[in-house]
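FORM 7B: Structural annotation worksheet

SECTION A. Query
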Amino acid sequence: METTRTFAARDYDLAATLTCGQVFRWHEQDGWWAGVIGNRWVRLRLEPGSITAETALPVANWEWLAHYLQTHLDLGEVLRTFPDDEPMRAAVAACYGLHLLRQDPWECLASFILSSNKQIVQIRQIIALLCERYGEPVPVLSGWPPAFAFPSPARLARATEAELRACKMGFRAPYLRATAETIAGGLFEPGRLHGLPAEVARGELMKLPGVGRKIADCVLLFAYGCQSAFPVDVWIMKALRRLYFPRRRVTLRHLHQFAATHFGPRAGYAQQYLFHYMRGRSPSRPVRAASAPDSGCRSRQSRSRNTSAPGPCGAS
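SECTION B. Predicted structure
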């Protein structure tokens, strides 16, 4: 049993990974990043070639954290599957070391239901309020603010819509409550999506209240590891249209078709690099658009790319 563990972590930008918009409950203090995973508070610090983790209570098995951080992943192998074009080269150069996390499906699903039409800072505030009011407190190290586990579906199902709206979530409150009721009542089991084909898992998620394709793809990518999922929100639409179709009117359907063929088996990883890059890019630093894609929104594959098909959700 121990409270400290060091994980080997090559090519890992911890700050970019925790602030890029895939997760919303980490904060930095004195060079450490603190957050709650399940019912454990943990703080993380990036070291050369490694990540040091500390918990408030002794831990016997640290696999939960290695799985969450995906420290085993060979980032170079992932990046070699990206298309060799100017926008992706610029995104990789700006965001190198960003990793996709593997989150709890329920927390990820609820978080992205709450993210609709909100900026990241607002999403963080809503979720912090929700956890403070409805989550169980978890032990923290001395000198750190109180922390709370993410509330369970059963707990949120017992809250009224008015109580949830008091957490500043607005019109999202009935969707969150209805989804929590569906899960708490056993009508939807998040765990059964593991291993399903992406299209099947996406369809199941989109049956839930308030879950459209964008939210479903976020959950597939960030909770189930389904890396063919390519969430398209305002930032990604802006990136794709500006960087790949600067002189063409392209529909959302065509953007989904383009993403499915252009970005390869790790399309979801490429999406997060583009997303974080576009959010952080200065308007005074334009990037050259890629060469116009072929007709039908299909691109030519780079000779160096790994084009093997991705596995089912949760396979990696």
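SECTION C. Observations
Residues 120-134 form the longest helix (15 residues). The chain has 14 helices and seven strands.

SECTION D. Sign-off
Analyst initials: ____
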